[in-house]
Fold each of these.
Amino acid sequence: MNSVDVVVVGAGQAGLSTAYHLRRLGFEPGSGFVVLDRAPRPGGAWQFRWPTLTYGRVHGMHALPGMELTDADPDRPSAEVIGDYFAEYERAFDLPVLRPVHVRAVRDAGDGDGGLLVDTSAGEWRARALVNATGTWDRPFWPRVRGQELFRGRQLHTVQYQGPAAFAGERVIVVGGGTSAVQHLLEIAEVAAATTWVTRRPPVFRTDGFGEVEGRAAVAMVEERVRRGLPPRSVVSVTGLPMTEAMRRAREDGVLVRHPMFAALTPDGAVWPDGHTVPADTVLWATGFRAAIDHLAPLRLREPGGGIRVHGTRVDRDPRVHLVGYGPSASTIGANRAGRAAAHDLRILLTAPRPAAAEAAVISSTWR
Ligand SMILES: Cc1cc2nc3c(=O)[nH]c(=O)nc-3n(C[C@H](O)[C@H](O)[C@H](O)COP(=O)(O)OP(=O)(O)OC[C@H]3O[C@@H](n4cnc5c(N)ncnc54)[C@H](O)[C@@H]3O)c2cc1C
C-alpha cells in the first residue's frame, strides 16, 4: 500500500492549485502528497468540453497560481488551450499527478491511527488527510420529467455535446437557463430546422458589468446554502447571464426566446400545461451538474439537508477532509483561493501538535 500525508483527488484548477501550495509549503511530491486524477490527460474537465467552446468564448478564466496563461489563441478550443497550459504547469512545478487513477471510495482506516484509506483503480493509498477537488463534470444532472421514456427522439446532456453539426436539420428543444444552454442554443440555431428554449425560471440577463462586488455577493449566496448544510448551487447559477452581442442578435432574431418548462415529453416532442405541443427530434438537457463526491460516501459527511457543511474548505464532520472547488469555491478564482487555504490548513494540522487545529480553522475560513 502507498502511504502519503495528503491525497489530492482531481487535477483540475482546484486540485492543481492545492498541489502548488502544498509543494510551496514543503510537502514532498510523492511521499508527502500525490494528486490522483481519473481523466486521461491534463486539463481537468476542460479537456471534455466541446470543440466550439473556444478559449475566446470562456468567460473569466483565472490563471493558476504562479504561472500566467499568455498568448492563448482565442480561436483555439479551450479544451486544447487549457489542456496544454495545465500540462505545462504540472511539469513546471513538478507536481506528482497520477492518471488515469479513479478514486472509488474513501474511508476511515479504522485502526485508531487517524488515517484514511483511499481505494482506487490503481490500488490503495493511505493518507493522513485528503483534499477533494473532483468538480462536477462527472455528475451531470438530468431532471426527471413525465413521459421521458416515451420520447422517440434523442436525449443528450451537455456532457455529450460536441458542437452543432449533429443537429443539422433537426427540431431541437434546449432545456436549461445557464450559459451552456445559451451557447448550445445559439450554435444549434444556425443549422437546425427549429429550436425551442425552455427554462424552469425566467433567466436573469446581466447588462451591467460583473465586477468584484457582484462576484462576492454571488459567492455569499452559495456559501449561505452550504453553511445551512444544503447542497450547493453552482456559482455560475447565481451570477445571471451576461448579455453578449451574439445574444442580443439572437434575441432580435427570435432565437433567444425563453419558454416555461413543459409539462411532459410525448413520443414526438413536448406538451405544455395549456395543451400546446412542440414537435422535436432531440431534447438537449443543459441542466447542469452536481458535486462529484459519491466516493466520499463511506465517510458520512452529509448533513440532514443533503449537503456537506464546510468551514472555509474544511469539512465540519471530518477535519482531515477538505473540499475545494466545491460550492462557493466552484469557479476558477474560487478554486485557486480554496487550494491555497486547504494547503495552509493541512500544513498546520499535520505538522503541529493538536492545539494548532484551532489556528488552522481560522486560516481555512479565510480562503476568500
Ligand atoms: C461549460 C463550462 C464552462 C465554464 N466556464 C467557466 C469560466 O469561464 N470561468 C470560470 O471561472 N469557471 C467556469 N466554469 C466552472 C469551472 O469549470 C470551474 O470552476 C473550474 O474549472 C473547476 O475546476 P475544478 O478543479 O473544481 O474541477 P474540474 O476541472 O472538473 O476537475 C476535476 C477533476 O477531478 C477528476 N475526478 C473527478 N472525479 C474523480 C474521481 N472519483 N477520482 C479521480 N479523479 C476524479 C476529473 O477527471 C477532473 O480532472 C465552467 C464550467 C462549465 C461546466
Amino acid sequence: MPTINISEIKSIDKRDLYILLSHYLKVPYYKIITDRITEVDKGFMDMVNERRVGVPVAKIIGSKEFYGLDFITNQYTLDPRPETELMIDCLTQHVNRNEEIAMLDLGCGTGCIGITALTLYKESTCDFVDICEKALATTEANCQAHKAQDRARFIQSDWFDKVPRNKEYDVILCNPPYIRTDYDLDRDTLHDPHLALFGGEDGLACYRKIVPHLRRHCKYIALLEIGYDQGQSVVELVRNSYGGWESVEVRKDYGGHDRLVICKKRQPNTELQPSL
Ligand SMILES: C[S@@+](CC[C@H](N)C(=O)[O-])C[C@H]1O[C@@H](n2cnc3c(N)ncnc32)[C@H](O)[C@@H]1O
C-alpha cells in the first residue's frame, strides 16, 4: 500500500496523532517517538479524517485511559474523563487500601470508577448499576479485561429502583449526568450518549432522584461528581434529605473547580479505617 510521511499530517493535534498511530500500528505510544517512525500506509488517513471532523480519539480507537488503566468505550458509554480521577484519589484518602469494602458504582457507563476501585481494594466488591443495557454490558467486558468480574455484580436499573431495598454499601460512587439540557456541547462531547450527559433543565434532576436513597444505602461515604457550579445546590439537597450526615462537603478538582460532593455518614470508626 502507498505510504504517507507522518510529518505531513498537520490537520490534527500531535498527541491525538500519536495515540491513533500507536493504535493503528499496534505499538506502544512511546515507541512512536523513540523509534522515530516516519512513514505509515495511507489507510491510516481514514482515522485521521475521522478525528479531523470531530470524532473523539477514544471513539475512533474504542478505548480510553483512566487512572492508568484502559477501558473499552463505545457509542453507549461516556468516555472516561480525567477530572473523574479525583473521585479515586478522594476514595483512597478516606478509606484505607487494606479495607474490605462493599461499593456501589451508580451510573457506571464503562465501569471505570468501580473497576479502578476494585483494582485498588483487592478484597472488596462492587455492584454496578446503569439503566442502559449496552453500557452495563460494556462494564462487564471491562471487568473481565481487568479480571474483576468475580467481585462484581451488574444491575440494570433506573438508579436505586432494582437495588435490593436493604442493601447497604460502605462506599457509593456516582458520576451522574449533570449537564443542563440547553448547554451548548463542545464538538467532542457531542459523540457521547445524551443519556450519560443531560441532567434536566438545571442539571440537577438525577441528584434529586439519587440523593433521597443515600441515607438507606450508604453506610459510610458517598462521593458524587458535580458540575463546577452545582456544589451548593447538591450539598443542600443532601443535607435536606437527612439530618444524620456527619459532614457534607464540596471538594475542588486540580483545576480549582468544584467537582465532588463528599457525604460522610459518620466518622470512620473501628470498622473502617481512613487512610493515614
Ligand atoms: C456521566 S455518565 C458516567 C459514566 C461513568 N461512571 C464515568 O464516570 O465515566 C452517567 C451514566 O449514568 C447512566 N444513567 C443515566 N440515567 C440513568 C438512570 N436513570 N439510572 C441509572 N443509570 C443512569 C448513563 O447511562 C451513564 O452511563
Amino acid sequence: MHKDLSLEACFGLIFLSNGKPVPAGSAPNGRLPMETKNSTAERKRDHIRICLERSVQFKRKSTWLEHVHLLHNALPEISAKEIKTETRFLGAQLSFPFMIEAMTGGVPEALEINSALAESAESLKVGMCVGSQRLALEDAESRRTFRVAREKAPTAFLVANIGAAQLSERPGEKAAGAVEMIEANALSIHLNPLQEVVQGEDQAGFSNVLKTMEKAVEAVDVPVIVKETGCGISREVAKKLITTGVSCLDVAGAGGTSWAAVESLRAEESHDDSRAGLGREFWDWGIPTAASVIETRSVTNLPIVASGGLRTGLDLAKCLAIGANLGGAAHPLLWPATMGANNVIREIRQYMTGLRAAMFVVGARSIVDLRRTQFLVTGELMQWLDQRKIKPRGEPSARKRK
Ligand SMILES: Cc1cc2nc3c(=O)[nH]c(=O)nc-3n(C[C@H](O)[C@H](O)[C@H](O)COP(=O)(O)O)c2cc1C
C-alpha cells in the first residue's frame, strides 16, 4: 500500500500512516486543509471509492475490438529489436502512443493518485490527463492536488481537463485557468451528457456547447482535445466539433468504464431508487470504442485518441490500425495508482509489451507501419458500419488519413 493513502481513504475514512482514522473531509497528515462539506468534492471521492470498490464496467456491450482482426504475418521479416514505438502527438514526442486518461483531482486522496500517475508519465514518456479541474477553479486550496502532476512530471505531455457543461459561464477564463494551473500542454474538454442526466444535474449547460467550445479554443494557446467519458463520439458529432477549431478528438467509447453505472451505484447508496434505476437502464449505453474510432476517422484527419475499454496492448494496436493516433486508459490505472508509481509503470509497460508483440506479428516496424496494416472487420461492427454506410480505413472510398 502506498505510504499515506490506504484503501480505507477511499471509503470515507482517511487513515493516517499511524493507523488512526480521521473523518472524511478533514486533512490527512494535516497537509490538505481543504474540502469540507462540498458536494463536488464529495462526488469526486465517491467516484474514486466506487470505481475501486464496485464493478463499474459495461456488462452486455463491449468495445467491439474483438470484431477487428489484424492480419497475421507469418513472415514478418523484422527482428523485434527493429520495432520502434515512438510517436509524435500534438507537438510532443512520446515513447509509445499512450495516454493516462482523466481521472481525479481536488480531494485529498487525489494527491497521491495524481502523484503516482504523473511520476509514471514522466518516467515512461507517455501523456497524462488530469481529472476535472472544476473544483480547483472554485477552491484555491485544492489546486495542489492538480499541480502535483506538473511537479512530478516536469517534461511530460500534460493535459488539463474541464467539463463542457461547466464552461457555460466564463468559458475563456476557466479554460485558460485550467491550463495555467498545471502548465498544461493541451486542454481537454469532456462531454458527459449521460452522466449528467443520471446524476440529476441541471442539464442547461449542454445547450450551447459548440459556442462555448469555440470560446475556450480562442482563449488558450495550447491544442484543445474534446473527449467523451465512455459513450463515444459519432461522425455527426465529430463533424460539428471540428467546426469549433479543436485539435483532437478522444472518442472515450463504450465497452470500458460506465458512468451510468457509477452514478447508479452512487444513487443506490443514497437510497434514490429512481436515479439508481435510470443508471441501470443506461448502464450499457453508447457507441462501442471500435465503431467510434472508425466513425470519427471517416470524417476527419485530425488526431484521434481511442479510449474506453482499452485493456491490452493488442487493443491499442487494433485502435491504431483502424484509425487512432493514440490510445488511452483510465480505470485499469486507478488501483495501481493507489499503490504507487511502480505499480502504474508495470501496468503501462504491459500495454507497451502487447503493442510491440502485435507490431511484430503483423510485420510493422513503426507506428506509421502499424497504422497502415491490413485489418478485417466482422460481426456486429461490420453490420453497424454497413448500416451507417461507413467504409473503414483502407477500403476504396475511405478517406485518406494523415
Ligand atoms: C475514477 C475515474 C474518474 C474519472 N474522472 C474523469 C474526469 O474528471 N474527467 C474526464 O474527462 N473523464 C473522467 N473519467 C473518464 C475517463 O477519462 C475515461 O474516459 C473513461 O473512464 C473510459 O476509459 P476506461 O474504460 O479506460 O476507464 C474518469 C474515469 C475514472 C475511472
